[in-house]
Specification:
- The protein is of the alpha+beta class and 294 residues long.
- The protein has helices spanning 16-25, 38-44, 85-102, 121-125, 170-180, 189-198, 240-255, 269-277; strands at residues 7-10, 29-31, 47-52, 55-66, 69-77, 107-112, 130-140, 154-157, 201-207, 210-220, 223-231, 259-265, 281-293.
- Helices cover 29% and strands 35% of the residues.
Length: 294
């Protein structure tokens, strides 16, 4: 049966188990989400799947973090479909773009951790994607903390909504996003709500009663992932990033992570200095971001 005759549709959270089963057996899969995040991701963002009868043969998942930008968050084909993965990708990508355009998305991004070894990079480059950013990855073994940072800074769990007379953190988080990041990296209110739901560690930094930074992590098996640390540039150089980093390492120690991984843009000099100060080692492979104009 030709792939053009297969049934293609949007996936929902009820398809999470089918996606999970496919990922467990797939020889060709790309995944930038955890399985715990999958049901909510399927609910929030356009994901398309191709079926033969009721069997999922492949899927393409997007993450619309902040229009006009979106990300390819996952791609996989079923066991035995590896010879047809490019045909399936073309079918799914064409359908996904239709749904992204309805959400005011104009740029679709793909991120990989190794520019020399990534199996999807060359495929996407001949499908309208262009090199856009380069990334460096870091790894840290051990929990040594060279400094605790600014002790005047209060680090506490995030509080997105106002409660008990206390103002919620959402407005401050969005202001930090706008000040710190280009559009492709920014989270919107929906994304922050999902992060608070699915990540085991999400804290903010307060200085003089104002939220000036935040940080969130996750752990998979014994791998620790420092996903993001951000400080408003208006209060840079005051030890706030170091304060957040010290608390993050304590979290990973308590969680039993064997090592801590992160990545950042190659031109983010301040971030490189902070990570290297805390004993993170830059890995040899170079990450990258591709962008496609829709």
């Amino acid at each position: 049966m030709p792939y053009s005759a297969n049934h293609v549709r949007l996936l929902t959270s009820s398809d999470a188990l089918s996606v999970e089963r496919l990922l467990r057996t797939s020889e060709y899969a790309y995944q930038r989400f955890t399985l715990d995040e999958l049901p909510l991701t399927l609910k929030r963002y356009p994901t398309v799947g191709v079926f033969h009868n009721t069997s999922l043969r492949g899927f393409l998942l997007s993450q619309v973090i902040n229009p006009p930008s979106a990300w390819i968050g996952g791609f996989g084909v079923g066991w035995g479909e590896h010879k047809q993965y490019i045909a399936l990708l073309d079918l799914l990508l064409e359908e996904l773009v239709k749904h992204l355009l309805t959400r005011r998305v104009h740029y679709l991004h793909y991120s990989g951790t190794d520019v020399d070894q990534d199996w999807l990079r060359s495929v996407l480059l001949v499908r309208g994607f262009q090199p856009y950013r380069y990334l460096h990855s870091y790894d840290k073994f051990g929990y040594d903390i060279p400094t605790n940072g600014n002790q005047q800074v209060i680090v506490r769990p995030v509080r997105l909504l106002s409660e008990s007379g206390k103002v919620g953190d959402m407005a401050a988080l969005l202001a930090i996003e706008a000040a710190c990041f280009d559009d492709l990296w920014r989270h919107d209110a929906t994304a922050f709500a999902d992060i608070a739901t699915t990540n085991p560690y999400f804290v903010v930094a307060e200085l003089d009663g104002q939220v000036v930074g935040y940080q969130f992590n996750t752990v998979e098996s014994d791998d620790g992932y420092l996903i993001r640390i951000a400080v408003h540039p208006s209060v840079g150089g005051q030890g706030i990033g170091a304060r957040l980093m010290a608390e993050a390492i304590r979290f990973f120690a308590e969680a039993g992570a064997s090592h801590i991984l992160l990545n950042t843009q190659d031109d983010n000099v301040h971030a490189h200095r902070l990570y290297e100060r805390f004993g993170f080692i830059r890995l040899r492979q170079r990450g990258f971001v591709l962008r496609k104009n829709l």
